[in-house]
Amino acid sequence: MLSGLLLMLGLLLPTLGYAEPHPAGDILDYHLQVSFDIQASQIRGHARIAVKKGQELNLQKGNLHIIDLHADGKKIDIAGRVETISLQPFEDGFVEIRYVGTFRSPERPEGVAARATSRLPNRLIDLRGIFLDGVWYPKPDRMCTYRLTVTLPSEYEAVSEAETVATTIREGQKVISFTFPHPLDSLSFVATSRYQITKDRFNDTEIFAYFFPEDEKLALSYIEHTKKYLKLYEELFGKFPYNRFSVVENFLPTGYSLPTYALLGQSVVRLPFIVETALGHEILHQWFGDSVYVDDEKGNWAEGLTTYLADHLYEEQKGRGFEYRKEALIQYQSYVNEKNEFPLRDFHERVNRSSQAIGYGKAFMVFHMLENYLGQEHFHESLRYFVREMRFKRAGWEDLQRAFEAISQRDLKWFFRQWVDEKGVADLRLEEDVKVKPRDGKFEVEFTITQKPKAYKIDLPVSFYSALGRVTHLFPIDKEKNHLKILLDDWPRKLVIDEDYDLARTLVRGELPPVIARLFAENPSILVLPPSGEKVYQTVIERFKKRGARVEEAGQVKDADLRTSSLIILGEENSLAERLYGRVGKEAGFDLIVKENPWNRKKVIGIFRGKSKKEVDEAFPKMFHYGQYSEVSFEQGRNVYKMTETTDRGMVKELLKQTPAVEVPALKDLAGVVREAEERKVFYVGETHDQFSHHVVQLEVIKSLHQKKKKVAIGMEMFQRPFQGALDDYIDGRIEEKELLKNTEYFKRWKYDYNLYRPILQYARAEKIPVVALNIQTEIVEKVAQSGLESLTEEEKKFVPAQMDFSDEAYRERLRKIFQEHKNFPAENFDLFCQAQILWDETMAESIDSFFKKNPEYQMVVLAGNGHLSFGSGIPKRAAQRNGYDYAILLNGVEIEKDVANFLLYPEVVPIEGSPKLGVFLREEKGQVVIQGFSSEGGAEKAGMREGDVILSLDQRSIHTVDEARLELLYKKRGEPVKVRISRKEPQGGEKEMEFEVTPR
């Protein structure tokens, strides 16, 4: 109970600390009546403002023409062309003003493109519609409660800030009254004759969609998404501030949130992603910015907070929050520098990329850090409290601070001072001397973090990765140099600082990709002309020349220039680009590729390539909207490709060396591998037995050598030496495939789906390529694994190679790791495991050598599991010891390790349709094939077959062995029914024969 009481006291006390931003006596009651002459782009207005005794009134007049002004019933003359009307204190009464204003679209200077107009008009009356914001009526310097009465042509619909709206028709014209009973800084208005209105409701809030006829179909989607956002934010921050909300389509390309409505331009409304992103952002502004107002003199906090709780939140919900935060830090680092940086408290509005990176990007990161520091519950409760206390008042950063302090009961002066009052972000560096050492059964990690040029108070998130996973710890730091230690249960392989981008900080080089934003922000100092077609790039050249770039021919650029500059390189075959990067990128109508400057990694180089001036002119102005990408391509002004170069996630420090990297320039395709090694005597091509793509590669190697008119043989682990005669008969055409499989006991001795190897054997038969059975009998290997070589009989020992090498210690240790993965093997059996493995390897090596002794003119392609070939330890070195022949090892799909092979192959997965299955587990018992269980594959159990049934025949072919059953199914098609005849024991004695139709899968 005591803790609850303390919390209540904490909630009550801060109310006393809030200054009243606008005493009730300062709020004016403003009644404005207006009508329009749309053809003349003119507004006529009558303003009536209630004032109290002693109040001074200052009105912005702007370009309005004041017809007359009366105060307390007395006419006041306005002398001169003043923009502000100042009225001295007077008695209780009214100020009344009649005025006229003309608002036309500004004329564009001849030759200036539409996109070059930097700012939209905020007051406009023409046949498209009416849009009024800012000074379109005599505007007081203080808050007012507004009543707006508008007379319009009867076909017009209009929107303004309002809690209540009333419409009447008078003398064929529409009169609309808008009442906003809460204090408001400024009034806006939009109207057009084209609006179609769709209505709905969420709880106590009426929802309206004002859309043009051609876009009316979008209204329902906007309303449904509005409901979703209202539900989300009411749960977080309390009831929606108003009793109505409208989504309004504008004929101008705006994107505004105003109290009670959002105003979105037509081109914006039509973008399919707006309902998932910008709409929620503008709705959230109804709480932050449109009901709790921004005190402009004290800094704009609303954009950062709304970005955090809308745009960022939506990405966080998709699991991409860390990417969004990283992108904000990239933008900050790209656009903000010592010359344009300012404290967050000084942000008022977005005027360029750097101010956006501060006021939106850095600001939302500050709120993210604050939430992490306080916890989500306190963070959200603080904002609910803030909304309650500051509704319809102007609020600054200090008001937010008080709210967070009130709920969390923490002193946050230090936090707001370093992140809001001071400019910059943290610049963290991990010193190189990271030490890891065992201590008391654990592992101590010691490292140093430095901060320059100033120290921030931060909870630094550090993740430690070991073979068993990741652990993350927070380290409080507040000095320029911070020595940190931690004890971990496992030896860390790497250390990563702030991998989820929870801190507003500078990115280190490994994290910072070369992006378009960096290219434009750094003001490239050298522009390199194309070898030809300079006119194609005229727009680009003029743009960068205006920004101070020096124009050079490719041959004029010196090494010293490269070391100090970011550059623009123009043209597809520019010799400077080829000198730095060779051939790069795509070939669309227009490409921009940004790369790190290899001579100075802090700089970037942009390579522009366009097929025509039209392609360049249509695409280039759009580049500024693609700042987060490293490469973009356009066709006829339409984006067709975009990519950001992959970089580290967090500040990464490797603590244990990983698998060595390959030399990328040495990479080849399979044909190149065969060409390089084609004179070697033996090609060892490894496999994972059940990966068909590996067998496709094996066949490609065989074909490549055979088609070069070489005499090639195939050595196969899959067949055992006693059955060499059956292989010879098949290759020579004396027997068919069924006899081959039966006579080699394939299904009993190898068991992998024969379809994996079928294309290889069929090709060998067609081309009369010898196939060599390499392997020793399964029975002998299994016996050695159980009891050792000494357990073999004299007859069995005849099959054991005379030469067996057990001296390869590295191979032995690799075998030990494999053995230890099988937990059910007793440790003392490891030596037996080694004996069996080496027997296996040596037998295959001997089989290879035996073939060469009889056929020295041949090459051989050996097909075996990767484990028999890796590092040459299994078969290759053992065969070479016998004959000294040179060999090449090609492994499929293994991890890269030093000396693991001559070539590593990574084929794409190739699907295969294996043999159909009945869905039964079979055993041989007293010369019969008995069902001992069922699998999910096939339909035997569903058809009515039972455990213990004896299979007599498949499609009337007698079955006596499991191999015969598999052989019969090999030639069946999936989905083709099979008649299965079985014998079943009757409960009362005797046996009954039955027949089932089963569809194999």
Give a short overview.
The protein has 1001 residues and is of the alpha+beta class.
Q: Please identify the top-level CATH class of the largest domain.
A: Alpha Beta
Kindly provide the radius of gyration, computed on alpha-carbon positions and rounded to a whole number of angstroms.
40 Å
The CATH topology of the largest domain turns out to be Rossmann fold
Q: Spans with pLDDT under 50 lasting ≥5 residues?
A: 1-22, 107-119
Count of individual helical segments: 29
Helix content range of the residues, please? Answer: 25-40%
Strand content: 25-35%
Number of strands: 49
What's the N-to-C terminus distance?
Answer: 67 Å
Largest β-sheet summary: 8 strands, mixed
Structural summary, described in words:
By secondary structure, the chain is α+β, with helices and mostly antiparallel strands. The protein folds into six domains: about 25-105 and about 120-195, Immunoglobulin-like (Sandwich), CATH 2.60.40; about 295-420, Neutral Protease Domain 2 (Neutral Protease, domain 2, Orthogonal Bundle), CATH 1.10.390; about 430-505, Immunoglobulin-like (Sandwich); about 525-645, no CATH class; about 665-905, 3-Layer(aba) Sandwich (Rossmann fold), CATH 3.40.50; about 920-1000, Pdz3 Domain, CATH 2.30.42. The protein contains 29 helices and 49 strands. Helix 4 (about 280-285) packs across helix 5 (about 300-315). The longest helix is centred in the last third of the chain and has 25 residues, at about 830-855. It starts with a helix and ends with a strand. Mean pLDDT is about 90; it is low at about 1-20 and about 105-120.
